[in-house]
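Problem 12. The chain below contains 360 residues. Write out its predicted structure in token notation.
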Amino acid sequence: MSSYFDERNEKTLAAITSVLDTLPDFAHEFNIGISMRTMPLTRLGYLRDIRVFCDFLTRRKFKNKQIIELDLNDLAKVTPTDVEEFIDYLSSYTADGKKYSCKEHAKERKVSSLRALFKYFYKKEKLESDIMTKVDTPKIHSKPIIRLDVNEVADILDEAENGENLIGRQKSFHNKTAVRDEAMLSLFLGTGIRISECVGLNRNDINFSDNSFVVTRKGGSTSILYFSEEVADALRKYLDWLDGQIVEQTPFGKRVTDRDALFISNKGSRITPRAVEMMVKKYAKVTTPFKKITPHKLRSTYGTNLYHETHDIFVVADVLGHKDVNTTRKHYAAMSDEIRRDVVNKVKLRDRDDDPCDRE
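Solution.
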């Protein structure tokens, strides 16, 4: 059976090798040292961030060296001030002939990569100190959570089903993909899965006997999630349609090349994250034009609705696959405020429900 995640890991490992070819020896050691406890995608992110930092060092601190020539002795000479200058440098810099500008979250991620790097070599006693303990994390300003309200959820599902507001080419494509798109949106809005989790689903991951499915989480672990009968109806309808495409051809004249995949693309192969993003954007643009809706916003919508129903942040964290409940708390802090407002009049200070004459 084909595995989206196995294939993705293979491509990521190839990308890691490519990046390592441009980095100093200590990056190779770091990559091997953390390989037992991190996923390839995480390591690739670290190494790309470290390359940006090394490029900065050769521009500002070690101007007589190339990136690949840096070593641990150079790393030991880096000061907290150097890192703070690097954070400022990230606001506008050039790499490989391209201009970049990092926002708050991108800066935070790069600082996190440096924390991992310096901490690793400090624990290995190859650096005398961990300078990153003296560097503050860039301040992150919270943004309002964008999500769909109840009516908007119904609107986007209706649009996926009938495509009334689509025009031109979108309309002709919709006639061929409506069943798939409705099933995918229903799954997002009914379970809160991530885009990678949706793309990675195989047909035999779905179990209609108890309306459950196996999902591969961020980090590689698996979980069993459950879906409502409404989602089940959309999935059954889609799978019936998909069986017809496998027996014959896709509506686009392409044979289904990945028979394990749950959701296929117009070309008959497993659908890509980019294609899912474009599909969501297409329907959201005509139903909620003033909100920038992405697959992650559909996840936020489900998380918000689940929090409304349960008032239990731990349940929401578990279902969404958050390893740290503080991640959930951060994303749904606004909902906590609503709950606090709702309960303000629940506790009565002078709520007498007995007859004073009954008291002794």
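Discussion. The chain has a mean pLDDT of 87. Students who got a different answer should revisit the alignment rule from Section 12.3.
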